[in-house]
Amino acid sequence: MGVISDMVKSKKMAGRAVLLAGPPGTGKTALALALAHELGSKVPFCPLVASEVYSAEVKKTEVLMESFRRAIGLRVREMKEVYEGEVTELSPHEVDSPLSQAGRAVSHVVLGLKSLKGTKTLRLDPAAYDGLLRAGVKIGDIVHVEAGSGIVKRLGRCEAYKAEHGLEADEYIPLPRGDIAKKQEVIQTVTLHDLDMSNARPQGLSTTNNGGARDVNSIIAALQRPRRTEVTDKLRSEINSAVNRYIETGNAELVPGVLFLDECHMLDLECWAFLNRAIESPLAPILVLATNRGMVGVKGATGLVSPHGIPRDMLDRLLIIKTHLATTDEAASIIAIRAKSEGLNLSPEGQRLLAQIASDSSLRYALQLLSPSSVAAGFLPIAAEHILIAKELFLDARRSAQIIADDSEGYMSNY
């Protein structure tokens, strides 16, 4: 997976697919999550289980298309006029409104800002006031306001208030030294699905006053106006055109992310046909599939048996990574890492016993025993006797099946 991560970072994996194939409990999902962590928060990562594709309300291919576009980011760079300073005034102005339940509505908000070079008073629309409320802005905060869209970002608390409120957990920052109004490069990262949903209209993408198509700036600005309507192929095509124009002019950069599709053997032939075509698109993420099946039938194709339940033409496109069961030493290392992450004090003998249990039963079962063993240990380190108590209380799949076999008459059956 380290090689895959390096290929993603160097942008050499776009439109490719990887298959993680191995028995249950071999860490396929953990590998995908580790890949997402390695890539960082700036690279989109969209996890999906194949069973989520099937819905009575949404077409299978539409669910897959939405997931594809969730996994593709767009990083837009542009120069914007912004205001930055300490909030000295925050006054909403209300007017009578018969459409409001309270009979009054906010018409605008007056925002006073201060820096070392002076002060400035801004008059913002009600949408900006909603942003101020969501950000929890109050007098004495340092804020960043975009002039065009009114988007508000709270940067922290002015350090002048640090002595008065020493118990606050806020980050204190100095009063800005420059002008309140300034030109600044702003980098925004959104996914193509965000753009689709924020601009969804049955008639497609709206146009400017002169009838021309909107650019990416106006598309991103629409993210501040939440609404939910259908996403059409025409809309996606127009958004793709706007995205391509910005990429060609150097004002935006496409960030192919990762779409992780678990239990992929549950997909049917229609889904595989869609994926086969979708990964050839220039706007395609890295597709990571995972399955624990061997030779099984392909859903939707009677009598067609294929490795992992995947059609042969799709298998030819995959880079297949085989996962294996952890050895006793590997299980011991994984158990130690999990115990440390959960803040548990695990003794060396307890670690060895859990590793042996993982070898005899499964690693998942051994990890599940950590929490009840810690309860049995109380404030003491988790020792072997505490693990044996938890093991006696909670059965693994093998012992449970043996109990059913030994006392089959005591259980109800469908046969």
Explain how this protein is built:
This protein is of the alpha/beta class and 415 residues long. 35% of the residues lie in helices and 26% in strands. Strands 3, 4, 5, 6, 7, 8, 9 and 10 form an eight-stranded mixed beta sheet that branches. A five-stranded parallel beta sheet has the order 2-11-12-1-15, sandwiched between helices. The longest helix has 16 residues, at 233-248. It is globular, with a radius of gyration of 28 Å.
Please name the defining characteristics of this protein:
415 residues; 8-stranded mixed beta sheet; alpha/beta; 5-stranded parallel beta sheet
Question: Could you provide a short overview of the structure?
Answer:
This protein is an alpha/beta fold and 415 residues long.
Which percent range fits the helix content? 25-40%
The H-and-E topology, N to C, reads as: HEHEHEEEHEEEEHHHEEHEEEHEHHHHHH
Number of helices: 15
SS-based class = alpha/beta
**Low-pLDDT regions:** 202-212
What characteristic shape results from the CA principal axes? globular
Mean pLDDT: 83
Q: How much of the polypeptide forms β-strand, as a percent range?
A: 25-35%
N- to C-terminal distance = 45 Å
- Largest sheet data: 8 strands, mixed
Tally of strands: 15
Radius of gyration using CA atoms only = 28 Å
